[in-house]
Specification:
With 343 residues, the protein is an alpha/beta fold. The protein has 4 helices and 40 strands. It is 16% helix and 29% strand. It is flat and about 90 Å long.
Length: 343
């Protein structure tokens, strides 16, 4: 489907500088722009490409003034990056709008309650007493267990698994291969040193606007709920253990693991490959650098790095010494020889 620069400017509440009737049908990076494509310029280090891009339309900030001739039509907006993100969302919704109905073969229990305008892909299983809201898209090979509740406008991509009794809020996205509600890692040793499984009878609750990345697992609680609060964004291949609680608008990058019963506050930013032990509390607005290990309670607003982690500023100062240890050791050895020689 094609859109004119004028139509796009209307969506973004921007102004056109150039040909308002030029049409685009695809999106591109500015350095790879081609005729008929739409791109954007937000980062100043890419400014050079606006003079060579072949993209038909480019979204720029209102204060952008070209210093050389350009061939692309400009759409000037308050925030080019945010506007382009808005277009990506619009484009994605447009693609999703083509999906509707129930494909076969699939299984839907007679006791399941389905909302309006939903899509269920082939080879999907929807169990007893499931409730699914309006405008939900469930792609092929997905599993929705018994007594699950899914709110409005959710997307479950191919191969997503939601185990029994879990609750998914509105506007949630669960990407391919994600597993919501698998058993927590609960085992009790006996006198022989053998481990017996502790039944995990709780569930997982995702509040509204939560994104769960591909291959991420969120374990059900032993009792009660594992809770992912409003607006949390989880990257791919993350492990969230039983009875964890993650506060609203916290973001966690790939390959992070959070052990059982830990509480993470709101508006935290946690880098990739971070390890967090169980039964601790992490405050609000905490930032954790990649590959850090968190083994203690963390207060609000701390910035951490290292394993075991400590203050980011202290870590940077200490790193200067870490990398110079061989040189320092050599200097100390030479000083010791001199002292011994003078005695």
């Amino acid at each position: 489907m094609k859109f004119t620069a004028e139509q796009i400017a209307g969506i973004l509440e921007g102004t056109v500088d150039g040909d308002p009737n030029v049409e685009v049908s695809t999106l591109s990076k500015i350095e790879e722009g081609s005729e008929g494509s739409l791109t954007f310029l937000a980062n100043p280090k890419y400014t050079q490409y606006i003079y060579t891009t072949e993209a038909s339309v480019t979204i720029v900030n209102e204060d952008f003034k070209p210093e050389n001739p350009i061939s692309t039509t400009l759409i000037k907006v308050e925030d080019a990056y945010r506007s382009f993100t808005k277009l990506l969302e619009y484009y994605n919704q447009f693609k999703m709008s083509n999906k509707s109905g129930i494909e076969q073969p699939s299984f839907i229990s007679d006791t399941a309650k389905l909302g309006e305008n939903i899509y269920v892909g082939a080879f999907t299983y929807i169990g007893d007493n499931v409730t699914i809201g309006n405008n939900v898209k469930i792609f092929p090979n997905s599993y929705i267990g018994e007594n699950v509740t899914i709110g409005d406008d959710c997307i479950i991509f191919a191969g997503g698994k939601i185990y029994s009794d879990c609750v998914i809020g509105n506007n949630c996205v669960i990407n391919s291969g994600a597993i919501i509600g698998a058993d927590g890692f609960g085992f009790a040793p006996n006198e022989k040193g053998e481990y017996s499984k502790v039944p995990q009878i709780g569930n997982v609750i995702l509040e509204d606007n939560v994104d769960v990345g591909a291959g991420t697992t969120i374990d059900r609680a032993t009792m009660g709920s594992t809770v992912i609060r409003y607006g949390v964004k989880l990257d791919n291949q993350i492990q969230i253990a039983h009875n964890v609680e993650i506060g609203k608008n916290t973001v966690i990058a790939a390959q992070t693991g959070v052990a059982g019963s830990t509480k993470i506050g709101s508006n935290c930013i946690i880098g990739g490959q971070v390890g967090i032990v169980g039964h601790i509390t992490i405050g609000n607005n905490v930032k954790v650098q990649a590959q850090s290990g968190i083994g203690r309670n963390i207060k609000d607003n701390e910035v951490l790095q290292g394993s075991p982690s400590f203050g980011y500023t202290d870590w940077n100062k200490s790193y200067v010494l870490f990398k110079n240890l061989p040189k320092l050791a050599k200097t100390i050895n030479e000083l010791e020889k001199k002292v011994d020689g003078n005695n």
